[in-house]
Amino acid sequence: MTHMITILGQPLTAYGMGAAMAMLLLLFGVAMLSRTRHLPRGTALRFAVLAPPLCLLCSRLVYVAASYAYYLQDIGDWTLMLRFWDGGYSMIGAFGGVVLAAFLTECWTRTPHGALLDVLGTVLPVVLMCARTMERGTGLGEGAPVPEGWPATFTIETAYGSLHTVFLYEAIAAAVIFLIVLLWQYLCRRRRPGDVLLMFTLLFGCTQVVMESLREDGHMTVHMGVSVQQVLAALLVLIALGIWTARAAKAPTCRRWWPALVAVLALMLVALAVVAEFGVDRWDSKVAAYGLMIACLIGLFELAGISRRLSYRTQD
Predict the structure, then answer these.
(1) What is the pTM of this model?
(2) DSSP E strands, the chain
């Protein structure tokens, strides 16, 4: 990783600078949208106080929780877990940190719950796109060897040969999510506070399940090539699905069997997605494995959409 400058005896890398720029972009975006959406004065400032430390803390906690064996067994020194400046973070942990900061800010400013969270759901795809782009040179976000003739833009040269730049695929996915979220807000006028963040969470979780499968950088891998971040991404999908299904269950016109049906179908789709994940390395056709995985994620996305529409009937 490129060492740029030294601050207080600690090296600042290009990725560290990029992460700082991403945080500034997040704070700026939240400040602008909070103003245009007339949130209480001081909302953006208080979010700026909470977001950086909570983002850093949650991101680091998820990483060390996933890598505890490395610190306790391989190195044998748990105190190194506290050396956050040495690197080791989780993108999904960072996501959880800023969501927690937004929720606490709403409580602090007595902002209606969901208002700042929806601002966050609009800004986060742009921040994610910036952060992913800065991963070049970190050794993260690298995939399998590319086939001959693959576009040079999406190729990175390493000691192991020419590899897929999965981090750029993730940046492109974030840009697409941003456009979808904007279009959805424009077309879907009937929504509840917090729905924008839930839509982002659902899209981010679905795309990240696939992207983590493409990564072969060994980051936070726990067992048989399965990444902790991939498991957490799937959990994000299930959380969004669960919230909208719980809301739908309260609708007087919703069938009582709907939540049970969603649970059964979600369990089946998750099981098939797990089969597809292991099939990536074992089946003759990777296209078939990824096709099945994507189909399962689309199924979960559609279930969430149906539950969201059913939940509106409580307002009729």
Answers:
(1) 0.89
(2) 3-7, 10-13, 142-145, 155-158, 161-165, 221-223, 226-227
